[in-house]
Description:
Layout lengths: L1 E2 L2 H13 L5 H10 L13 E5 L7 E6 L15 E7 L2 H15 L6 E7 H8 L5 E3 L10 E7 L16 E4 L6 H7 L7 H13 L4 E6 L10 E5 L5 E6 L8 H15 L4 E5 L8 H7 L3 E6 L1 E6 L20 H11 L2 H6 L17 H13 L8
Parallel strand pairs: 4-5
Antiparallel strand pairs: 1-2, 2-3, 3-4, 5-14, 6-14, 7-12, 7-13, 8-9, 9-10, 10-11
Helix pairs in contact: 1-2, 3-4, 5-6
Amino acid sequence: MKTLTTAELQEILPWLKSQFPRSLPVYHMAQNNLRNHYPYHFFWPGMEFLVDRFPQPTVCICRPHSSTIKQSYVSMLNGQHIFLYAANPTAFQCIWLKNYSDLVHLEESVTFTDIDADLANVLLDTSERFTHVPGTEGFPNGERCFHFDLTTWNTELARIQLPSHVRLGELHTGYVDQIVANCANAYGQPQNRRAFIEYLLTHHFPSAAIFDAKRSTPNTPIAYCMYWPQGVVGHVYINHDYRQQGLFKVLLAHLLGRLWCTRVVSVWMETMNLDIPNQIEDLRNLGGREFKHHNKCWVAYSPNTPANPKLQEKGRSDFKTDAGHEKSRKAGGSSEGRRGRNSVSVDAKREKPVPRGSGRRESLQREYEREGDPSVDC
């Protein structure tokens, strides 16, 4: 596997984009790591990208840089996250079985996020230490996924009339307690949930919120959503008292407008909340390109799970321990050193902004400033 330089990562972006929807998470992790619109980076720190070959890859892995795992890695919802795309599951299986101990830091818990079901099966067949993350096993017919290309997005869709007592805004760190409480049973490990949300809000990841001045707590959002580093809309919440009133479309349109203003070129969303009426129609009306049967799931690895590796049935040894890594270093040098070369860093050279209509962006900027949100610079 080859670790990509910044220029090489830029070069494979068109290939990743051509593989939608299966490559959506990896593409957006790469895209956000290449942004250079300070303070609107929206990347996750300490990540690197590997491919099986260059310049015509079939497998791409986005993983935490080996040097950050035990030092400065910022945990996501389920700890160490890895994003994976493979055009050919059989090719990935060959690479994985040969190199898994070098591809993944197996002394720590790992979550493979938003991967295809066929790739998940490769991982699950490796060892019983790999398991589905509860609630993400996928659906028999897959999920419906919507992609928004903001380079051609109709910005007029962001203009939605609201009653005078309802206003639009964004989230900040003062809402962390509310967000954590609302997603207590839905997102991630308890020890990581708060840190993840705080990082998003502290680093100005785009969000959208709706407030009602008639409530006893007018400054508490009645609905909100957030943009995650893998380019997906997450933490979608609508207060039960306000459902079936069309707020989902208002909320998403407002977030898309903010993303467009900060020169985000692409975003996606999955349909999982069946209690939101007309969600599919709203996503289509907002310009979403629909992908059906998007069968993906999350797979977790825990080093604390009692070992009963299925690989032993194939004559292979169990995962390398620290001693095994030490033995490998003596035989052929440090794998950690190899991972560190030419990796994409947070201050590396990034792609040029996509030109937009400045007049429309300035108009949206003025609207956001009237909302009391001067941080958005269009």
